[in-house]
Amino acid sequence: MKKNLIRLITALAVMALAFTGAKAQDASARNYALIDMQYLTEQIPQYKSGTEEIEKKAKEWNKEINQLNEQAKQLYVKYQKDYDKMTADDRVKRENAIVQVEEKAAELQNKYFGRNGEAMKLQEKLIKPIQDNIYQAVKLISERRGYQIVFDRASSVGSIIYADPKADISNDVLTVLGYSE
After folding, report:
1. Which residue among 21, 79, 106, 117 is least enclosed by CB atoms within 10 Å?
2. Dihedral sign, CA of 134, 140, 145, 149?
3. What is the predicted pLDDT for the residue at 160?
């Protein structure tokens, strides 16, 4: 009798937990949504042209930096070849010339790709406004529909393996931004 009572209580507890878990899961399903940031950005022509412009400039800047690095390398090879024939003063002069070219390459690297470099400035000018608009559209839709969280399913950090397509609001974001199909 006592065993049956314990089984009955255990069964009721398991059912109560399952019911509560199902209710909580159902409630949370209405509080999130998904976007696909990669899909969104592919649909916005200004984003594509902005990234292309940044890539084009980056190639130019890398070419300039690589030319200086190649120049420094050639100076060093020549320096090694002529080392035995040079005086101590000549060695110092040539070493300083190599260092100057290497420093110039490093300065350009920082100027173009550093924390406050030209690439970052272009990113701020061309890409960030689009990202800000996407964020505002997501915020607007989230507030209207009561979403507490929106996941970017294109992100490699915390990526989602499976998602119900009905939760994806990417096309709605495009509509708010004026890029509807």
Report:
1. 21
2. positive
3. 59
CA angle 89, 95, 100 (to 5 degrees): 125
Burial group, residue 19, by CB count within 10 angstroms (0-12, 13-18, 19+):
exposed
- Rounded CA-CA distance 116/119 in Å is 8
The rounded distance, in Å, linking the Cα atoms of 36 and 66 is 36
Sequence-distant (6+) residues with CB within 8 A of 67 are none
Q: How far apart are CA 36 and CA 84, in angstroms?
A: 63
Nearest to 97 by CA among 75, 64, 66: 75
Report the predicted TM-score, pTM, of the whole model to 2 decimal places: 0.69
pLDDT at 24 over 60: no
Distance CA 151, CA 167 (A): 10
* Residue 75: CA count within 13 A, CB half-sphere: 18
Pairing between strand 32-35 and 149-152?
parallel
End-to-end CA distance of the chain: 68
Query: What's the sign of the alpha-carbon dihedral 46, 47, 48, 51?
Result: positive
Q: What is the pLDDT of residues 44-55, one digit of tens each?
A: 999 999 999 999
